[in-house]
Amino acid sequence: xxxxxxxxxxxxxxxxxxxxxxxxxxxxxxxxxxxxxxxxxxxxxxxxxxxxxxxxxxxxxxxxxxxxxxxxxxxxxxxxxxxxxxxxxxxxxxxxxxxxxxxxxxxxxxxxxxxxxxxxxxxxxxxxxxxxxxxxxxxxxxxxxxxxxxxxxxxxxxxxxxxxxxxxxxxxxxxxxxxxxxxxxxxxxxxxxxxxxxxxxxxxxxxxxxxxxxxxxxxxxxxxxxxxxxxxxxxxxxxxxxxxxxxxxxxxxxxxxxxxxxxxxxxxxxxxxxxxxxxxxxxxxxxxxxxxxxxxxxxxxxxxxxxxxxxxxxxxxxxxxxxxx
Length: 325
Description:
Blueprint: H1 10-39, H2 45-67, H3 79-102, H4 105-112, H5 115-127, H6 133-150, H7 162-181, H8 187-209, H9 220-226, H10 234-260, H11 263-266, H12 273-285, H13 291-317
């Protein structure tokens, strides 16, 4: 018979595992951001999303689903919740991807990271979760780090900057639905219906505007949305394959993260995407961050690490599953 380590609670273990899932998911999503940015100048958004979703569905059906119990894993008691959750994530991704087409990758991701603060606030309002002062302090420090990188009042706050901000709010709403259905719906089930929603919505958008009759505008975000479908170059097929694999794994892992841990705890770990996006900007687009950006990275990463340390320290000091900081 096995026992839990002394001073360690089930909730603490769940939060630690949730943090690991969130961190790995964010790495996957960072590859998606990079791939979308690379493809945004030559293809239509709905084409990229449709092809990516085909790859994701293939990986899901032949890898994730067999490991999760087969077809029985797709059964659901909450079809309406899956539809709502899928609509939130599709709209959030469209806004973020359009923002990536118009903004430097680090700027778009930085603006998007008002989402952990939004998730924390929503978790209090809609889920009744308790966020203690130390968690609020860590979340706010992460947000300050984002502001240091974005630099309010500069070119980052052009009209296209609203797109990642809207995406962040929709993303937070999606995770509220995840928290509501986590007791009856598995991460596998939630991942399947998200991919299905992406496939159906991108196919519909492609059928309506995929001929490019509305293309030709000067704004890169609108052009990315309205561009006609184009033959995919061989080199770009590898990027689409990466998008599909990273997308499905990220979706499954982030669903696990928010099922296992409190929304306000898991959210700050997503800040790790910020330094990764700055690396992509330097390596692929030759956009170097300034000194203030490095200060922001320290605050962003530090806030997430502090959250993990506080979770372990408080669990050891006071093993009460209802205890909140």
